[in-house]
Amino acid sequence: xxxxxxxxxxxxxxxxxxxxxxxxxxxxxxxxxxxxxxxxxxxxxxxxxxxxxxxxxxxxxxxxxxxxxxxxxxxxxxxxxxxxxxxxxxxxxxxxxxxxxxxxxxxxxxxxxxxxxxxxxxxxxxxxxxxxxxxxxxxxxxxxxxxxxxxxxxxxxxx
Length: 159
Fold this sequence. Notes:
This protein is mainly alpha-helical.
């Protein structure tokens, strides 16, 4: 990839992230929960029951961060933790009825939001956009051996 293409990709992704409001996730809320809680609720709601380790891996945060998120959701009566009968060290996390209501609201809201975006894409380009986003998602995942944050903040400058 040429430097020009690299810069163009970077700029397009930067603008996309900004337009989707991803950078404001620390200040944002989503259906009366924080964005971090929203991600956890959605993933739990989609699988039904999950361990803390599996959830933190799925969302892409460390276990301590996810543990704090789950603790807050337990306090707010949105999730419950159940000790696995076969392995007492394994904790299953599930949504409560209140958590399921929030999950359903999030799904409905996000489906409406993204349907609006999808509807503005010319019909003959929709499959191409989906395929391209899949390729980009896979490339980002494959490249995440070291995060860009580590590269920016932990890599010593070259002499």
